[in-house]
Structure formats: structure tokens, C-alpha cells
Specification:
Layout (H helix, E strand, L loop, with lengths): L2 E5 L9 H8 L5 H9 L1 H11 L3 E5 L12 H10 L6 E6 L8 H11 L3 E4 L1 H4 L11 H13 L3 E4 L18 H7 L5 E4 L7 H10 L3 E4 L13 H6 L38
Parallel strand pairs: 1-2, 2-3, 3-4, 4-5, 5-6, 6-7
Helix pairs in contact: 2-3
């Protein structure tokens, strides 16, 4: 079974104009992409043409940079209900955009969200800021750990206007992996392009850390991490389609293992 663990199907109406313009740049088929974001049926047909069995639909809360609000969680939950065996919901929580983090976590669980996305350069925080007083992050991590929900962290740079790339250094995930040893951590983009060695070090150090090298331009991005495929074959090699620089979703390795988005366990946290 071929699973693309990193596809951006999101509510287009929430994009800020400058972010939407970047998404449109050099894409003659942008209207087609917009249709996929509106129509699960059309998107599933696209996956069929690409030879992809399942896809994780990445959504996250980042109102300052992208425009996405908490509405993305209801959007992706509703979208994935059209084909729950093929569409994997990834939602988000933002520590600085909540009035009741416990209630927001419960809402994520009720919706059946199967993965959480934290995007430090767009959410403007470090992944280990729970050590600096952002207590909401610790609550998010403990809830995800207790309920078997993986957390995908954007690592590496972003070219969207307003992104702060200092937050993209994956070294701050070292604290998270140590403090939450049962939390499945997925490093999106492998620290591209500045911190790829750091990402590989974290991958080798922590058994609960996975590597996602989506959105890296070369035709065979696995060549950038040859040891990773030998040492940790459970890594998720995915696309980041339709992000900037990713023209299609049909370049997924058939030797890749499934992503760690399994059925949620409703546990206390």
C-alpha cells in the first residue's frame, strides 16, 4: 500500500492573499488543485491516477503567516469522512491561539484527527517552548503521547512571507524526544536545506523520531539521506504536494514504510 504522508489539501478561502499568490506561482493547474481542495471525489481520482492508495492531508493553525485558523480541523475531519480508509486527517493546535487548550485538545480527539501538525516557522515558536513557559505545548504533547497520535513538525526553512526560519532548526526537537519518549515525532522536510545533518543525528539518536523528506527538490530525495534508508527503514518518504516546487504526487517510493498515523486510542492525559 502506497501512502503519501504529506499532502496539503486545505481550505483555500482561509489563505492570506500573499500566501495564496505564492501557491499559485508557476502553476498552470492551480484551478485543478483548488477543485481537489473542494471535492474529495476529484482528489481521490487524482490519487488513483498517481498510483497512491492513501494520503495524509496536512492542515495547521497559523493565522499570522498563512491565515489558517482552528477551522482547518473541522475542514479536514469532514473531508476525510468521505473515504476514511484512504484519507488520513492531520489537524493542528496553536498554543498562542487558544483560550482553553484542554477543550481544544478534546475537540481534536472528538473529531478523530489522526495526526497533529506543529509548524514552528509559521506558528512563530520553538518546539521546546514548554520549557520557557508555553505550558500549552506540554499539554498538546502529553495528550498526543497518551492517545497514540503522531505529531509532525515542520523542520527546515520556509519561503512564505512572514515565516521566521530560526524556529525551523530541528535541534529543539531533541528536548521533545527526550521529555516525551512515547510520542511519535515526524520531522517534515528533514531540516532542509540548512539542518539536514541535525535531522539525521536526531533520527539516529531517538527511536521515536521519524524522517519525512517531502518537499526536497531532487528527483530522488532519498539520495540525500542514504544511511537513513539503511538504518531506519520506517521513515516516511513523501511529497509535500502541492507546495511550492512540488509539481505532482506520483513520485513516492514503493519501498517506503507506512507513516505512523494509526488508529487513535482515547486515553487520559
Amino acid at each position: 500500500m502506497i501512502t503519501d504522508c504529506h499532502v496539503h489539501i486545505a481550505p483555500m478561502e482561509l489563505f492570506k492573499p500573499h500566501a495564496l499568490e505564492l501557491m499559485k506561482r508557476n502553476r498552470a493547474n492551480f484551478d485543478e488543485i483548488s477543485e481537489y481542495c473542494r471535492s474529495p471525489k476529484a482528489f481521490l481520482q487524482y490519487l488513483d491516477r498517481c498510483g497512491v492508495d492513501r494520503a495524509a492531508l496536512i492542515n495547521y493553525v497559523a493565522p499570522e503567516v498563512i491565515g489558517f485558523t482552528n477551522e482547518v480541523n473541522q475542514f479536514v475531519a469532514d473531508y476525510c469522512r468521505h473515504a476514511p480508509k484512504r484519507l488520513i486527517s492531520c489537524g493542528s493546535l496553536h498554543p498562542r491561539h487558544t483560550t482553553n487548550i484542554m477543550a481544544d485538545v478534546e475537540h481534536i480527539l472528538r473529531l478523530g484527527i489522526r495526526m497533529i501538525k506543529i509548524h514552528p516557522p509559521h506558528q512563530l515558536l520553538f518546539p521546546n517552548d514548554y520549557l520557557n513557559g508555553v505550558n500549552e505545548l506540554e499539554i498538546i504533547y502529553r495528550a498526543a503521547e497518551a492517545n497514540g497520535i503522531p505529531i509532525m513538525f515542520h523542520t527546515g526553512t520556509s519561503i512564505f512571507p512572514g515565516a521566521r526560519n530560526k524556529y525551523g532548526d530541528p535541534i529543539y526537537l531533541d528536548d521533545v524526544a527526550v521529555d516525551f519518549p512515547k510520542l511519535k515525532i515526524l520531522m517534515a522536510h528533514g531540516g532542509r536545506p540548512l539542518w539536514m545533518n541535525t535531522a539525521f543525528f536526531l533520527l539516529r539518536r531517538h527511536p521515536n523520531v521519524y524522517l519525512d523528506i517531502s518537499g526536497i527538490p531532487p528527483k530522488n530525495p532519498a539520495d540525500l539521506f542514504p544511511q537513513a534508508r539503511r538504518d531506519r527503514p520506517q521513515n516516511a518518504l513523501r511529497t509535500d504536494w502541492p507546495g511550492p516546487g512540488v509539481p505532482t504526487s506520483n513520485g513516492i517510493s514503493r519501498n517506503s514504510r507506512p507513516c505512523p498515523c494509526r488508529k487513535i486510542r482515547r486515553n487520559k492525559y
